[in-house]
Amino acid sequence: MNKFNFTDYFQEPQKKIAKRMIFKSENVIAFILNIAKGEKLPEHSHLQSTLLLQVMKGSARVRTDGTETSLKPGELMQIDGQQKMEVLNTGEDVLRLYVTISPIGSENFASDADI
Q: Which positions fall inside the Cupin type-2 domain (predicted)?
């Protein structure tokens, strides 16, 4: 068993986005995306994986294959990996998203990143 504190992974992005890994196993990764005010996670897909996005703090607009959905704290969104997705920070502060991806797919998704 492991216990994690989300706020340990909340970070002010030095650029546009600070991704901080919480957990990684053979089957799943979990991380926090910290997206700066006015910035976005560019459009991409995750092939055969399923993603769960939960807004921890802030507000977001998620575009999936041309459809837009607004999310606020406490709301959770499931996205199939083959869907193209883009996440925009629509709030007045850093957007904090808790994300899980299963199966992992590419190892490129399984590390901290600053973009």
A: 32-99
3-class DSSP assignment, residue 109: helix
Task: Mark residue 105 as left, alpha or beta (left: phi above 0; alpha: psi -120 to 50; beta: remaining).
Answer: left
Edge-to-edge strand ranges of the sheet holding 60-64? 40-44, 85-89, 60-64, 67-71
Residue 101 near residue 46, CB atoms below 8 Å:
yes
What size, in residues, is the chain? 115
pLDDT in tens, the chain (115 residues): 999 999 999 999 999 999 999 999 999 999 999 999 999 999 999 888 999 999 999 999 999 988 999 999 999 999 998 899 999 999 999 999 999 999 988 777 789 999 9
**Look-up: residue for tokens 């606020």?**
72
Contacts of 5 (CB under 8 A, 6+ apart): none
The residues spanned by each domain of the chain are 23-107
- The CATH architecture annotation of domain 23-107 reads Sandwich (2.60)
